[in-house]
Amino acid sequence: MDTLLLARLQFATTTSIHFLFVIVTLGLVTLLVGLQTAWVITGKQKYERLTRFWGQLYVINYVLGIATGIVMEFQFGLNWSGLSRYVGNVFGAPLAIETLVAFFLESTFLGMWIFGWHRLRRGVHLALLWGVALTAYASAFWILVANSWLQNPVGYEVRDGVAHLTDFPALLGNPTLTMAFGHVVSAALLVGGMLMAAVSAGHLIRRTPDHALHRTALRIGLVTAALSITLVQGFGFAQFGPVGAVQPTKFGGGDEAQAMIGEWTARFGPGDYTPPALASAGLGFMITIGLTLGALWLLVPLLWRDWIIRLRFPLWLLLLALPLPFVATILGWIAREVGRQPWVAYGLLPVDQAVSPVGAPVMLTSLIGFSLLLGTLAVTNWVLIARHAARGAQDPALGRPPGQSIHLRTEPAFT
Amino acid sequence: MELIWYVLLGLFFGTYLVLGGYDYGVGLSLARNADPGRRRAALNAVGPFFLGNEVWLVAAVGILFGAFPVLEGELLSGFYPAVLGALAGVILVTAGVQLRSRPAHERVRARWDRVVVVGSALAALGWGALLAGLLQGVPRDTDGHVVGLTHLVTPFAATAGLAMVALVAAHGATFLTLRLPADDAARTGRLARRLLPVALAAIGVATVVGLLSERVRATAQQPLAGVLLPVLLVAALVVARAALTRGRAGVAFTATAVALALPVALVGATLWPYVLVSTTDPGASLTVADAAASAPTLRLLGWLAMPLLPALLGFQLMCWWVFRGRTDGRAPVYW
Prior knowledge:
Chain A: Keywords: Cell membrane, Electron transport, Heme, Iron, Membrane, Metal-binding, Transmembrane, Transmembrane helix, Transport. The complex is a heterodimer. Chain A is mainly alpha-helical. Chain A is 74% helix and 3% strand. Chain A has one domain (3-390). In chain A, the strands form two sheets. Chain A has a two-stranded antiparallel sheet. Chain A is globular and about 70 Å long. The longest helix of chain B is centred in the middle third of the chain and has 31 residues, at 182-212. Chain B has one domain: Formate dehydrogenase/DMSO reductase domain (Formate dehydrogenase/DMSO reductase fold, Up-down Bundle).
């Protein structure tokens, strides 16, 4: 096994796990902002309980988002030192901005939000969640600025073999960025909405207590999911134009792709410049899932007079369809990233020049170690989310009023 | 301009060692605590600060990537085993602390607590070894790559890693003395008073091993800083011990915090004007200026990120202010 393949496998594993969690984070936090705002404005207990229940699931999910995110950040330097050496002047900037401007604040706000129940004034507590949500979106934006630059390097010039930043606004106006950001954000809302609808459907199928609560969440989730699937499709198809123009080899042949390959062969020498078929396969299956999920709109009219609950089978459909948006998300990421091969930065830096000069055994150790670690944590995390989701909204630990006096030795108070 | 960013990088990483340091110290203290209630109380003493502490690391690496891209690649891949260990530790602590109380069974929670203990030890060992690795220089060749991994396997790196473990353990116990309810703080105060001499001894051993190492002496560009700062470190620990004996937990915590920030200052000052000193080829040493991103990038980061730094600090201060004081029955419990 060569170092390059191992490094790529490690990146693919970490990114996929990371993406499965952050997409839920981004979607759920938006719904949570809605729920908590509704609670603060209306004062209804229903919204408080929904905020606590869904807030807890959100916070559990957040853990793996950070854990994998930290690994991702370090991985650039550990495994891809050529990336920072040749294009770090340009590519590093949006990543640095993301950590300082977005993620740093997001985590600080979230820590205060988790521990701020019953301690902060309601308005301040709500403002913290708004802060978490806005910085989460900012985070997604800057990461996509960085990723889009790898898809289509702009705003730089190469001097002495190293890329230097010349035009930062060009990074923000990158044609591979605008529609992709819309696509990812609406996909996050779709995932969040479907998760909320599916968990609520599970409770309604099992006829657990809190019927009214889960009914509300089902309605919110379904409507959000239906609205977002339309956006997902719109932003998705809107990407074909700009992506095809700047990355002709991404999804198969054509004259422009051949011309591009000819140009690269002249500049970089002969080589295999067509991305693996996996990219197109990923794209195809993702589109199939995306179009199938358009059927969410068929369920929306059933909200009238609660037919969706009375008929029961729509609830089962929602529950069983839950894996679909997650699978589509990964497929979409595969299409975007594998379609960039064999380049780290499209047409500028090939992957084999970016990989760190580390021996294959070390890279293999790192791959196995982190895959096992993050894989185990991911599964554990999902089990915990599933258990807490199934347990229902009775007294989640998040936002529980502090006991009259918590003596350190009386353990049962803390279950 | 490079100097400002270099100082900022040091500030962020140093602050991470101070704040993350007590997370790991509290994590290590779980190993010595059989009582589940006490373990949970210790973790919730860190409670609201936990998420805000580790982001300093993320931000430091962000600055490293944005402002010192060449250094980022060389540093992380050149110290692969140390970074790998630290990173695994950080992940284990992050996940362990936040998830340990989600299962209701005490047995499962105790298992998670062991994960936190192992993670805390790994993180401290890794960062200690990394800082030592910088001080002993790297085999960087003329084409700019750090070659091999065995350069990290030295007595100095090992003793420095262990010293960092001892240092965070003492720092964490001091933090708990400051933060837990008064009657429980007495216990952790005793623990901290026992741990501080251990940390002192470990720092002493690491310093002596470092001074005896020819590689370290050859690498040090500013020997004066290299001697003065360890002395300050020892002084800080002595002050901490004395303050604890007098029941001044606040002073003691400030002193251990200084002690955790000093190693970063030590590395930065001793190597100046270099960041990576090559042991094989003097011409291959990397200066701060050469490691920095080119001027347009630094200017952009300056315009975009600098104005926000007061806000970053302000919200952290808000967090410390809102949750100041000892934990009591009214404090929320979540971890």
